[in-house]
Amino acid sequence: GEDVEQSLFLSVREGDSSVINCTYTDSSSTYLYWYKQEPGAGLQLLTYIFSNMDMKQDQRLTVLLNKKDKHLSLRIADTQTGDSAIYFCADFNQAGTALIFGKGTTLSVSS
Amino acid sequence: SQTIHQWPATLVQPVGSPLSLECTVEGTSNPNLYWYRQAAGRGLQLLFYSIGIDQISSEVPQNLSASRPQDRQFILSSKKLLLSDSGFYLCAWSVSDRASEQYFGPGTRLTVT
Questions:
Q1: What is the Cα–Cα distance from B7 to A72, expressed in whole angstroms?
Q2: CA within 20 to 30 Å of B20's CA: A27, A102, A110, B84, which one?
Q3: What are the residues of chain B with a beta carbon less than 8 Å away from any beta carbon of chain A?
Q4: Going by DSSP bridges, is the β-strand pair A18-24/A4-6 parallel, antiparallel, or unpaired?
């Protein structure tokens, strides 16, 4: 079945770059997504990438997609304490009816 | 603009009691609707999704059920709660005519005691 895997924790210092990695199994999705969850809140759509792109940049965020290896990454430049949150990678299920999420990567930013 | 509401925000219920969580969407029509559960350390688990009134698919067999009495209202229910039902319940919506991003509500924190 479909699966999305992420590392669970990442700790960085303020001002450094953060790289959050994700692997997925279903390669038929048109888009792949990154969501952010702050403590006690719902998920916020952060960015997405079209499956025929290798890279997408949006201000401090860079998404890289390696379709051959089914690997997706999110790079946050100049990480700030406000970036501390859980980050989820998401891909569609095989039926294309709903998003399947990884377990989330908890990003901790120290000053 | 579209908004999604969930209530209650928090709920503490004893084992064996019933459950009703409500989700409503404003500013769109005929959305796809979803219920997810987030348990500690386990990510998001898709529970139900609906592409229209009376069209609900269950992803995981359990003691929960979902209903969609109106186009933009999605309800999650249980007749008898279990301890394992504790978690953070998230409702989401997406545009209906294509596979697209989902937008999430603020969530309901359920603690079963």
A1: 34
A2: A102
A3: 32, 34, 36, 41-44, 46, 49, 51, 57, 59, 90, 92, 99-107, 109
A4: antiparallel
Would the CB atoms of B99 and A96 count as touching at under 8 Å? yes
By the 10 Å C-beta count (0-12 exposed, 13-18 middle, 19+ buried), B100 is classed as middle
List the one residue out of A35, A26, A16 whose CA is nearest residue A85.
A35
Å from B94 to nearest chain A CA?
Answer: 9
Give the residue from B103, B96, B75 showing the smallest Cα distance to B18: B75
Q: Which ranges constitute the DSSP H helices of chain B?
A: none
- Mean of per-residue pLDDT scores for chain A: 93
Cα(A25)–Cα(B71) distance, integer angstroms? 33
Cα B75 to Cα A22, B34, B47: the distances in Å are 32, 10, 12
> What pLDDT is stored for residue A1 in this prediction?
60
How many alpha carbons fall within 13 Å on the CB side of residue A17? 8
| CA contacts within 13 A on the Cβ side of A23 | 5
Backbone angles phi, psi at A83, to 5 degrees: -85, -10
Instruction: Pick out chain B residues at pLDDT < 70.
Output: 41, 61, 97-98
Shortest alpha-carbon distance between residue B100 and chain A (Å): 8
Cβ contacts of B63 within 8 Å, gap of 6 or more: B78, B79, B80, B81, B82, B85
Average pLDDT of span A16-44: 91
